[in-house]
Amino acid sequence: MEILKIENLWLEVEGKQLLKGLNLVVHEGEKTVLLGPNGSGKSTLLYTLMGFPNYKPKSGKIIFKGQDITNLPMHERVKLGMGLAFQNPPAIRGIKLSEMLQVCRKDISVEETATIAKLLNMEGFLDRDVNLNFSGGEAKRAELLQILAQKPEFVMFDEPDSGVDIENVELIGKQIEAFLSNHSGIVITHQGYILNFIKAARACILYDGNIICSGNPLDILEDIRVRGYEQCVKCNLRKRDE
């Protein structure tokens, strides 16, 4: 069953066309990896799906759990079960991480907070301001901690391995894999390191605002490393013409 369906999505921001008739389906329990060069529209797609005010589609539809959410505000999408982990989580002065977890889910208990914090080695960060003076890995772990507290049915991870050392990539990757074993989601990765720990069945290449191909994540990643995105585009155009 489909949990997310994107139909012919067009998006323009400040006069620039960023998404160009994009189509994508994610099924319940499916992990979809999104690859693409910088500026191809990967983060833009996630912001559009999440309902950021400046990312309102010009045309097309976003269907989530059978409901058209194309014009639904962000907070309503969160209520329906959508979540987003940012590529660069912001620092928030004056709000403790433990307090942010209460914002993510009001009924979270002290015991559950301690349990999920331990999973990510974040026990000593709960009384610190959110991401303030955190390292890259610490900020990404804090972001994932909020996702684990929120428990969205469908979660989008924007480059969870960027700016993170090898040890943290393994920890974060394994926890994302564990979470997505019972949920659905999209994972954006640029270098692909996180795919050593996240076992996804499908990857899609997003190039110039549209998805040009899909297939096995490790096969596609290796093809990109050897030939680059430009050659992937030329290959797919050639196949289309044939």
Description:
The chain is globular. The chain has one domain (2-88, 152-241): Rossmann fold. β11 (202-207) and β12 form a beta hairpin. The two termini are 32 Å apart. It has helices spanning 42-50, 74-80, 97-104, 110-119, 136-150, 166-180, 217-241; strands at residues 2-13, 16-27, 31-35, 59-64, 67-68, 82-85, 92-96, 129-130, 154-158, 184-188, 202-207, 210-215. With 242 residues, the chain is α/β, with parallel strands linked by helices. The chain is built from seven helices and twelve strands. α3 (97-104) runs parallel beside α5 and α5 (136-150) runs parallel beside α6 (166-180). The strands form three sheets. The chain has a six-stranded mixed sheet with strand order 6-9-10-3-11-12, with helices on both faces. A four-stranded antiparallel sheet has the order 2-1-4-5, with helices on one face.
Give a short overview.
This protein is α/β, with parallel strands linked by helices. It has helices spanning 42-50, 74-80, 97-104, 110-119, 136-150, 166-180, 217-241, and strands spanning 2-13, 16-27, 31-35, 59-64, 67-68, 82-85, 92-96, 129-130, 154-158, 184-188, 202-207, 210-215.
